[in-house]
Amino acid sequence: MDGERLTFDVYEVFAQTDPLGPHQHQFSLLASSPEMAMALAQENFLRRREIYSIWVVRRDQIVKSGPKERERFYRLKKSYRLTEDYRYLADKWRRYRQAPMTPETMV
């Protein structure tokens, strides 16, 4: 290794503890290659607890959304998914309980 310098990248480790659960971020580590990062992550996890799956991702490969992308999501008005748009139903049900509907009142 005359004059060669080993470079290390930062890797993020995500683990899934059961087959139906999500992968959750656990920790970051420094490694010289993806294979080394996986070996370090497995060594760190498998001796402590049982897991279902491990993901190891180089930090600079993770893509995140910025302010411009967030603006696009806010423009999508989907208020029908929120319960606050259905507040009128409580009053409506209260009226029906107080004065039940009959064939005469339906007209």
Structure notes:
This protein has one domain: Roll (Ubiquitin-like (UB roll)), CATH 3.10.20.520. The chain has 3 helices and 3 strands; from the N terminus they run ββαβαα. A hairpin with a 7-residue loop joins β1 and β2. The longest helix has 13 residues. The mean pLDDT is 83.
What is the topology?
Layout (H helix, E strand, L loop, with lengths): L8 E8 L7 E8 L2 H13 L6 E6 L8 H9 L12 H11 L9
Antiparallel strand pairs: 1-2, 1-3
Give me some keywords for this one.
107 residues, 3 strands, 3-stranded antiparallel beta sheet, alpha+beta
Q: Count structural domains.
A: 1
Poorly predicted runs of 5 or more residues: none
Radius of gyration: 27 Å
CATH class annotation = Alpha Beta
Count, helices: 3
CATH architecture: Roll
- By CATH, the topology is Ubiquitin-like (UB roll)
Which structural class matches the secondary elements? alpha+beta
Q: Indicate the percent of residues in helices.
A: 25-40%
Task: Give average pLDDT, whole number.
Answer: 83
The count of strands amounts to 3
**N-to-C terminal Cα separation, in Å?**
92 Å
